[in-house]
Amino acid sequence: MSYQPIENYGIIGNMRTVALVGMNGSIDWYCYPHFDSPSIFGAILDDKKGGRFQISAGSDGVRYKQFYWPSTNVLVTRFLLADGIAELEDFMPVGLPPDSPVYSHLYRRIRCVRGTVRISVSLRPAFDYGRETHETLIDANKATFKSSSLTLALSASVPLAEDGHGGVSAEFSLEEGKSQVFILSHDCDPDAAPCPPNEKETEELLRGTVKFWRGWLSACTYHGRWLEQVHRSALALKLLTFEPTGAIIAAPTTSLPFEPRPWSRSRRRRKHR
What we know:
With 273 residues, the chain is α+β, with helices and mostly antiparallel strands. It contains 4 helices and 17 strands.
């Protein structure tokens, strides 16, 4: 089992839910559609059965750097290789009407900044904390994951293949200046014709999200020595606010153990207490 320290995770969200993104480009915690909904990805608790959505560049010798776009909750994970650099931009759109069809989407854009970089994608959901089974269907530009309670879809412009474990994977090369977008969303219309992600729409949503966070932060009246730290704390607290009620959740995760251990062992121990 391979676990990252909690400090290796950045966070994105839409004031309805959040996702934790590791420095290796893996979303290891994500509940949908709300903070207190059952998890879809929970590898932070069980590396093998918890589910994850990973986009990474290179393999051996890669170095990572993770940071936020200034004054926003848009997360950037940078992959530094000997012969290239790639950046992964993660965000959930905010500042949209509540009935907007993209409000609950999760956007991931991988860009090649320098050289030519080999990209690997792996998505394996684990519905309801890994307790629900699901069906995986692959169509042109789309993979659908259907459980008894929820159906999610991954939209992509690259070929996706089943990984034999209920998930999908892809590998492709990106040349300098090129990018690919991946969108995870609720499949509200399974009969609709699948279409690839729209790069222009993604860029517009990204800029709108940046504008929202910076506009909200501009109301901060603190101008002291610890401005950067105060701004980052304020953005984190706003991200953890459930917008419909204004309540702030205690933490984005739930039931993290003191030491890593599989869920099966955790459940057995609780049963015998």
